[in-house]
Structure formats: structure tokens, C-alpha cells
Amino acid sequence: MSSRTFEDKQPQPRASGSGFEFLKGVGQVAGGTLLSATMLTSSIVAGGLVGLAVSFRNLPDVRQLRSFLPSETTYIYDIKGKLLTSIHGEANREVMPLDRISPDLKRAVLASEDSDFYYHHGINPKGVGRAVVTNWSAGGVREGGSTISMQLVKNLFLSHKRAFTRKIAEAVLAIRLEQILTKDQILEMYLNQVYWGHNNYGVQTAARSYFNKSAEYLNLAESAMMAGLIQAPEDYSPFIHMNKAKEQQKIVLGRMKELNWITQEEYDNALKQPIKLGKIRSFQGSALPYVTNAVAHEIAKKFGREALLKGGMRIQTTVDTNFQNMAEDTVKNWHDILRGQGLSRNQIALVAIDPRTHFVKALVGGVDSKTSEFNRATQALRQPGSAFKPFVYYTAFATGKYGPDTTVYDTPVGYRDGDGWYYPRNYDGGYGGAMSIRTALMQSRNVPVIKVGKAVGMNKVVETCRTLGILSPMEPVTSLPLGAIGVTPLEMAGAYATFANYGWQSPTTIIARVTDSSGNVLLDNTPKPVQVLDPWASAAIVDTMRSVINGGTGKNAAIDRPAAGKTGTTSSEKDIWFVGTVPQLTTAVWVGRDDNRTLASGATGGTMVAPIWRNFMMKALKDVPVEKFKSPYQFPRPKSN
């Protein structure tokens, strides 16, 4: 320690940086002469604690703090960087480097908690001695005398029960701590660890909550108020007791002036400075619950729930907030319209994907996330009905033996099914005879698609679905082409998006990028498309689905540009769909009831869901240039075996 006297150490209230350089020359101010008994006790206690440091062998090993990573809050943003929500466990924390924390805040905390921090070695004999005398006189623990190092080890390692033995343990651990970490490291860890009230841990989340700004930009008035919270954060919270908060602020500013760390003018100006409060942020809801819940589920599955709650991740989603809000408004409006059409208790899910990147652009899991958090877009396994048929016809096209104009027969047929027979029927109960595959899909005929599925092999159809990213359970049964399986709207949108991109596919994702709090990339979902389907067969099925909108069951989905899609209606009208695409956007819309009961007699995807799709796409594509699909003739047709 320097041999200069306290008077030789001149204060530098405007010093920049951190640590010893930040406080270089800032001296201690004599606060009166302590009783000789106090000084004697201080020396005895200090010497005794050094000896105890050798004998306390059962205390935690502070060396583990060299690699200590505090729990941090995870933040989720939209594609443009707008904060959607924060996710954390007990501790809402964002770690801030010491050199980015306001110098005023560092000075205020040191003045309030440990003005001799840069001159002691973990314990402050003067402070400990004063506390010992006070506690001895009071007959119990009344004053702590804790240094910042002691407070830090208490917060990290020890119980908060007030006891004399715990104070000794604090002192021992503090001495050990200062042997392995620098002062700056200890101060940084303390400022990021300390509790500031309202579930805010560390300076950054506290600054954002109390003053709606980064800890980097806190002024002197705000810094003194924050420093005054440490001893009893909720009691002195300006959100609850502004008068008490101002009293604490004045005490801290007075201490800083007493230490000559600020001038009288700075003291006066800080007291006059208006305080503009932020708002309590912990455990706030999400701006886009369906999106952030889906993201949280994916992150927990990939990295673990502990990493999600405490890992301090920065997650950029693929969703634009305004676009998502438009999609949610569309769903709410059509919920009311469908109720007027007799579809009571209906739920709607909508997923929109960019087929060029497979980035999710909108994901709506229900009519109202406030009344139901169940995400039907990602979690509801519902039968797609005839919206499944394009998977069968694509599989046939990929063999090279079939094309959109291949003749199929809509005639009665029966198949052995266990001990009995299965006789497929069309929705209208009749048969159309010979027709092209294009016509069969336009009219959504059931019999022809089952015949084609049996001809190419239902196992091949299942393989196609797996390639398209449909992972829901399915069996290669005769009725498979009619969509008698459970799929999610997200799976359906992703599959059609691969068709729209002529067989090129990146994994469908709602997460663009994930970093840790230091900016290190943990996950980068930059699209890396792979050709997974035959391009001619993909273009051919898209071309065939264009006929569905141009003159078939999906004519109510027609928009002012080339589009392809397919209706879906299950038996008993329990699930109705429309899944469709343009070259730049693929959207799946599902309507059904959570109790899986019939929506209404005669409810179909073509009459009730296609208009929803049309309405959404007209708004979504308002400023998007019209683009044509590539013709199948631009690709080589696969050779038939």
C-alpha cells in the first residue's frame, strides 16, 4: 500500500475507466477519531482473521470463481432486432463489462458500500473493528462492516442468516478471493451479481428497469439512487417509495462529497436532476407469445432448459413483428366471420414460410394467446385430408412414369384391409371415370389418388413425406393418400415450400441466429439449401396445384398473381385446410375445434379456409412483385425405371 498520507491522495471525480486507475488518488477521509479500544480490537480481529484463513479448510474453494459464469437472462428479438421477450429463472441478469459501466455508478457504489475497496485486501480492519464494537455493545449482530469482497462471497457461497460465525467465514473467503482475482474482476463480478430489487440482478437489468437505459449511460443522480438501493432494494425502490429513494440518493451523494469524489456543485445539481423512471420489466409477457413460445421450445430442445433460463442467449427470430401482427389480426377477424357462418368454438392456425429460405415469416397458433397458450401451429396433430394428395402425386411424378396429364380412373375399387375390404369413396359419392391427374387433383377426387398411391407404393409416399420434413407418425396404409394421419400446420407449410422452391430445401426454422451475451455465435441458421426432391416433379406438382386455384376446389383462393395450392377437408368436417404458395411465400391455414368435434355440416376447406388464405396473402404480398413459377419444361423429366 502507498506510504502517502490520506491528505496526499487527491480525488479525481472525472477519471474514466475502471479499477485502480479509475479511483487512482482517491483517498480516504477521516470520519473522526475512533476510540483506542476500537483500534485495538480492529488489530486483534484483523490478525485473528488472517490466522483463521489457514484453519478454515471446509469453506468453499474460491478458485472456482476464475471460471464462474453467472446466470443471465435470455433475450428473444424479431428479425429486425426488436425485443420480443426475456426469459430467465430466478435471476434476471445481463452481464456488463466493468469498462462499460458508468463511472458515476462505480463511484456511487464504492462510496456507499466500500470506499476503501482499492486499498484493503478483502477485509477493512477499520470497518470490522467498528462493527465488532457496535455488535458487542448491542449484544448481537447489528452492523456488518462488510467489504465488497465479503458481500460477493456471501452472495455466491454463504447463507444470508446473520451470525457472527458467518461474518468470520465471509472475511476468510474474502481474503482468499483477493489472492486469486484482481480488484477490477471482483468489482465487475459484484456489480453484475448484486440484487437491485424487482428480480433485477446486476447493474444492466436494474438500469434498464429503473431508468430505461443502459448502465453505461447512467448519470450521477441516477447512479446515486441505484447505489442507495443495495441495502434494501424493495424498501427503497423508486417505483414504490420515491421519497425513500431520494433520501438514499442524498445519503450516497453526501458520502461522495465527503470523500471529495464530487464537488458541491455536482452534489447540488444531482439532487435537482429530475428522475425519469422506466418500468418493472421482470416476468413481463411476450409481445408475440406464439412466436417466442415456439422459439423457447426449440432452444430448450437443442441446448437444454437450463441454458435457456440462465445462458444469456441473444436469439434472433425469422419473424417481423408487423408481419406477425398482421397475421394474428387476420386470424382474429376470420374467427369472428366463421362464427357468423355457424362455426362455433372454431380455432385457426396459420403458418407462412419463405420457400427460398424456409424461414418462418408468421406463426399463429390460435385465435387468442391470452386465453390459450396451446400452439396449434406447432403442437396440434390434425388430419390434413385432401391437402395430403400432392405428396402422393409428387411421388408418382418422381418415378418418371406419371405426369399432370397422365390418365387415371375414378372408378369403384376395393382393397383387402385386414379381415375385410376397404372401398374408397369420393366426397360427393359418385365417380368421374377416366380423367387426368390434373383434373383429379382439381376436383379433389379420392379414388384416383389411392390407386396411384397403391401403384407407386405407400412406402414411397411415406419416404417423400419424411424428405419434406413431416416427422409425425404415419403408416403406409391404403387410406394414407386421403390424409388420415396427424400433421402440424408448420409441417404442411414447410412441405409445400419445398415444392415451391423446386425441390431445394433448408430446414424450416423460426430461429435465424443465436449468440451468447458476448456475441459468440452458438447457432447460425443461414440457409444452406440442398436439392432433396426432383426439380421436374416438384415443378409439375406446383403446376398441377395451380389448376386447383384457377378452376378447381380452391378457386376461392385466387389472387391477382400465379398461385398454387390445395384444399383439405376431413371426414365429418373436423379439420378443414388450405395450403398454398406463390414463389415468394407459402402459407398453411387450418381451422378446427380443440375438442375435435365437427365444425359444421358442409364445412370445407374450399368454402371456408381458402378465403382466409386469400385475404392473408393479398395483404402479405401487397408490395411484393408478381413472380411466375418455373415451368416443368425448364427441367429434365426423370427417366422411368
From TrEMBL:
<dbReference type="InterPro" id="IPR023346">
    <property type="entry name" value="Lysozyme-like_dom_sf"/>
</dbReference>
<dbReference type="InterPro" id="IPR001264">
    <property type="entry name" value="Glyco_trans_51"/>
</dbReference>
<dbReference type="Pfam" id="PF00912">
    <property type="entry name" value="Transgly"/>
</dbReference>
<keyword id="KW-0328">Glycosyltransferase</keyword>
<dbReference type="InterPro" id="IPR001460">
    <property type="entry name" value="PCN-bd_Tpept"/>
</dbReference>
<dbReference type="InterPro" id="IPR012338">
    <property type="entry name" value="Beta-lactam/transpept-like"/>
</dbReference>
<keyword id="KW-0645">Protease</keyword>
<feature type="domain" description="Glycosyl transferase family 51">
    <location>
        <begin position="81"/>
        <end position="257"/>
    </location>
</feature>
<keyword id="KW-0121">Carboxypeptidase</keyword>
<feature type="domain" description="Penicillin-binding protein transpeptidase">
    <location>
        <begin position="349"/>
        <end position="617"/>
    </location>
</feature>
<keyword id="KW-0378">Hydrolase</keyword>
<dbReference type="InterPro" id="IPR050396">
    <property type="entry name" value="Glycosyltr_51/Transpeptidase"/>
</dbReference>
<dbReference type="InterPro" id="IPR036950">
    <property type="entry name" value="PBP_transglycosylase"/>
</dbReference>
<dbReference type="Pfam" id="PF00905">
    <property type="entry name" value="Transpeptidase"/>
</dbReference>
<protein>
    <submittedName>
        <fullName>Penicillin-binding protein</fullName>
    </submittedName>
</protein>
<keyword id="KW-0511">Multifunctional enzyme</keyword>
<feature type="transmembrane region" description="Helical">
    <location>
        <begin position="34"/>
        <end position="56"/>
    </location>
</feature>
<keyword id="KW-0472">Membrane</keyword>
<keyword id="KW-1133">Transmembrane helix</keyword>
<keyword id="KW-0812">Transmembrane</keyword>
<keyword id="KW-0808">Transferase</keyword>
